[in-house]
């Protein structure tokens, strides 16, 4: 892994692909929106900063063919922490972490994380729901905190994130800056899908959200 020409330093991006959703009944990575599935959107968004993009998944096979290496998460525990632990050895300076079920409406959101980075501090977004552990930037020096939480069985990401040294960016302030709301949508339920569909209509596209053909 060499110096990357876009961000100017070693930056690795990891995208969590979580498999079939209980609430949606489909793999969220393959839900289509605005002409691409959500995983493709995530890859495109982080690629504005780095070409070193990895998909983190329990099962490798469904995610082949996206043009990115797939890192298998071998842990039997169902927690995003195991995906973070899997990619950590590949990170020499910075980890840009996101998930396929986070629909980012403007790539500038990731650029804001990069611009506001500070050594030995995570750069995270604050939404009305709280701190966002994904769509966040972490220095390599702090990744041990995720590994320690995993080893202790402390799987609630918010608990570790609250203890972590960090720079916090307000999503509401960024929405004012870019005159767009929302800037991201967490896709966890049918209501979230409907919300994305309304946003797609507002962007003058006739693309409807649907599970992609597998």
Summing up helix and strand content along with how strands pair, one would put the structural category as: alpha/beta
- CATH first level: which class? Alpha Beta
Number of domains: 1
Order of helices and strands: EEEHEEHEEHEEHHEHEHE
| β-strand number | 12
* Percent of residues in β-strands: 25-35%
Shape: globular
Q: Can you list the strand order of the major beta sheet?
A: 5-4-1-6-9-8-10
Task: Determine the fraction of residues in helical runs and give it as a percent range.
Answer: 25-40%
Description:
By secondary structure, this protein is of the alpha/beta class. The protein has a single domain, classed as Spore Coat Polysaccharide Biosynthesis Protein SpsA, Chain A (Alpha-Beta Complex). The protein contains seven helices and twelve strands. The protein has a seven-stranded mixed sheet with strand order 5-4-1-6-9-8-10, sandwiched between helices. Strands 3-2-12 form a three-stranded antiparallel sheet. β8 and β9 form a beta hairpin. α2 crosses α4. The longest helix has 13 residues. The radius of gyration is 16 Å and the shape is globular. It starts with 10 loop residues before the first strand and ends with a strand.
């Amino acid at each position: 892994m060499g110096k990357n020409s876009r961000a100017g330093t070693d930056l690795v991006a990891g995208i969590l692909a979580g498999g079939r959703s209980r609430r949606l009944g489909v793999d969220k990575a393959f839900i289509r929106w605005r002409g691409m599935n959500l995983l493709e959107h995530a890859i495109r968004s982080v690629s504005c900063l780095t070409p070193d993009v990895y998909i983190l998944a329990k099962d490798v096979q469904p995610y082949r063919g996206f043009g990115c290496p797939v890192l298998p998460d071998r842990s039997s525990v169902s927690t995003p922490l195991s995906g973070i632990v899997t990619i950590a050895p590949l990170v020499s300076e910075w980890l840009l972490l996101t998930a396929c079920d986070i629909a980012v409406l403007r790539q500038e959101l990731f650029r804001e994380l990069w611009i506001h980075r500070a050594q030995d501090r995570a750069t995270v977004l604050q939404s009305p729901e709280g701190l966002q552990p994904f769509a966040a930037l972490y220095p390599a020096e702090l990744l041990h905190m995720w590994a320690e939480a995993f080893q202790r069985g402390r799987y609630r990401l918010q608990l570790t994130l609250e203890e972590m040294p960090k720079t916090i960016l307000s999503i509401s302030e960024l929405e004012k800056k870019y005159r767009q709301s929302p800037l991201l949508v967490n896709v966890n339920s049918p209501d979230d899908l409907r919300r994305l569909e309304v946003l797609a209509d507002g962007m003058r596209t006739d693309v409807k959200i649907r599970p992609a053909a597998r």
